[in-house]
Amino acid sequence: MGLTAAVFATPGRGIVFGAGSQCLKPQIAPTPTTVYVTRDGGLKWRRTATLNMAVNQAAYTGSFAAAVGEASCHGGMAISVDGGLRWRVRAVPSSCQDPSLTAAGATWLTCATQGAQGFMYLASGSTSAPLQTKHRLNGLARGARFVVGANGDLYAVGEDHGANVLWVSHDGGRTWRGTLLSLPGV
């Protein structure tokens, strides 16, 4: 078994995801992803769960963890609010990736559409709540990550009509303002 993602909330607390598979040929049954948790910096690992999805990327902060990948031949996101002990898998668009977490328990996902358009999903910290909000930003690059500032402001980067843009939200992502970046050599 290989590993597909490893994330640490602190130097001592981490989660790794064993390789699972989804959407192979009809005659091959999918295999679940195994979740392991450490509380001592990786000296000892404990198996805590299996997920019915293949995990590609993950993020972890405080006791909140999120993993994205493929579930039932579609996009999937797994959420844990207890440090990786219990998980709930829910559907997200298959183009979503790069989970970024806030300390308040929100997950931002960068999603792609055709062309230069991109959009973001905001998922609540609850394992049972549906995805709450979809925000569209022109030119948000696939693979762009969100950064959450100490004061709760949100930041993302991308391109808009060939220009570098820094997107900033001061209200939890309800509204965004784009600022053109003039970077030397870029």
Q: What tags apply to this protein structure?
A:
single chain, 186 residues, mainly beta, Neuraminidase, four-stranded antiparallel beta sheet, 16 strands, 0% helix, globular
Task: Write a concise synopsis of the structure shown.
With 186 residues, this protein is mostly beta strands. The chain is built from no helices and 16 strands.
3D architecture notes:
The protein contains no helices and 16 strands. With 186 residues, the protein is mainly β. It has one domain (3-144): Neuraminidase. The strands form four sheets. It has a four-stranded antiparallel sheet with strand order 1-2-3-4, with no helix packed on it. It has a four-stranded antiparallel sheet with strand order 5-6-7-8, with no helix packed on it.
**CA-CA gap between termini:** 41 Å
Spans of at least 5 consecutive residues with low confidence: none
Count of helical stretches = 0
CATH class division:
Mainly Beta
Helical proportion, percent range: under 10%
| Rounded Rg | 17 Å
What layout of secondary structure does this protein have?
Blueprint: E1 3-8, E2 14-18, E3 33-38, E4 46-51, E5 54-61, E6 64-71, E7 74-80, E8 88-91, E9 97-101, E10 107-112, E11 117-123, E12 131-138, E13 147-148, E14 154-160, E15 163-169, E16 177-180
Antiparallel strand pairs: 1-2, 2-3, 3-4, 5-6, 6-7, 7-8, 9-10, 10-11, 11-12, 13-14, 14-15, 15-16
